[in-house]
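REQUEST FORM: STRUCTURE PREDICTION
Request ID: SP-0412
Submitted by: Lab K.M.
Chain count: 1
Length (residues): 157
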Amino acid sequence: MAPSLLFDLSKHNLNKVAHGVDEIEAINPHRGAMRLLDGIIYCNLDVPAQVIAYKDIRDDEFWVPGHVPGRPLFPGVLMLEAAAQLASFVCLQRLDEQFLGFVGAEKVKYRGQVVPGDKFILLGQEVKIHRRRSTCQMQGLVNGKLVFEATIVGMVF
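STATUS: Completed
RESULT:
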């Protein structure tokens, strides 16, 4: 049985962008094909911080030709990276630091496929934010269905 969502999505307009690419790039260092967030839909930095972001999965992405030719699947490792980038976006706003590196993933589960044409929605909620080490729970959805979940651990370097 799939777990419940981190928070109620019915209270949020998933088509409204609160922070675009420029604002994401002002906080996170990722650029080009390695920037895996296209927009932040919601960001509440109160304790516990909660955030909703998205990535549009396009058919011209670098992994499409080789990650299951004829049936491209968004790689799980890129789902983890997108979640880590979202955790970084949240934690760096709460900490007075410049870089938060991805150092671990726990309780990772893939529950569905993500393919070109999908809008991959990420939900995040802080578990612990500390000056040196931070932890966030993350979930990924496509068309309202939970397809991914993980606990992301980051460390200030």
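NOTES: The first strand starts at residue 39 and ends at 44.
Reviewed by: T.R.
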